[in-house]
Amino acid sequence: MVPGTALTTLHxxxxxxxxxxxxxxxGTYILSGSADRNIRLYNPFPxxxxxxxxxxxxxxxxxxYGAHGYEVLDIAVSADNARFVSGxxxxxxxxxxxxxxxxxxRFGGNHGHSSRVNSVCFGGAEDSVVISGSFxxxxxxxxxxxxxxxxxxxxxxxxxxxxxxxxxxxxxxxVSGSVDGRVRCYDVRMGQLSVDVLGSPVTSLAVTRDGxxxxxxxxxxxxxxxxxxxxxxxMTYKGHENAEFRIRSCFGGKEGWVLSGSEVPRSTAAxxxxxxxxxxxxxxxxxxxxxxxxxxxxxxDGARKKVIGADGKEKARRNVISCVAWKNDGRGDQxxxxxxxxxxxxxxxx
Length: 350
Prior knowledge:
The protein is an all-beta fold. The chain has one helix and 29 strands. It is globular, with a radius of gyration of 19 Å.
């Protein structure tokens, strides 16, 4: 059964949410990164069993982490849940201690990125390497245990902004997606680079657990499942709108499903409400849309700023669901999403 019941909402963000992830196993907590420059740690179900009660109630905000000077654009959690890394519009990459809510390291300055950091992840033994991808078209590798301010390595083959980075399933590969429409795979052991040309700006990357498949989202409203070895396309997922914003997609249900947000809801129920968004869930093997999930938007209390277009007229408000995350460990099927209205919604089976 495809989980599409809203279980709880997570409040606190004063702007669009750009980054969303679960803690490592067992995935009890959720981290969000927002345009208001803060990172928030939530317990979505602090006082009750998951999905009980039948009423959508807000989760608990546990901690707020503040150090970025501009919007937070990506977050990644270490395997031991003791640290996480964040990147943002201030060109900085921060390594955080979860328990103390303090930064351990800041990677930046004269040897750092020259523009906003769009994507971050951990790599290496014991997550000792931090990897960052930036609007400056470079991928940089940082030693989290060293006090050196210089990156271990800089990968500068991209011709445009780096939108996504991850470590391949084989452990010694770094995969990057770029606005130049290419996915690059760096084998750091062999010193080799392979390039797959998609033809449209890449917005999202996700790798299968066996490392053989790569899920690639692009700005032509298409998500592709690619074969890592041959570069061939295994499946295509369509039905959502993605032509303007960076929208992240992910696997769910032990890779049985593919999830993605959308810029413009196509379902009748979602389109009827300006403040509502939409998430699509496909069958991974067949590419069939299994469910369109309406994401209720935040109620307009009159305090939110109006959006004025170039013509000077107020624009209709859209809740673009730009990030989705699946709880890979723990009990039950659960996922969360967030977007331009700043509200994080957690879904599962009732």
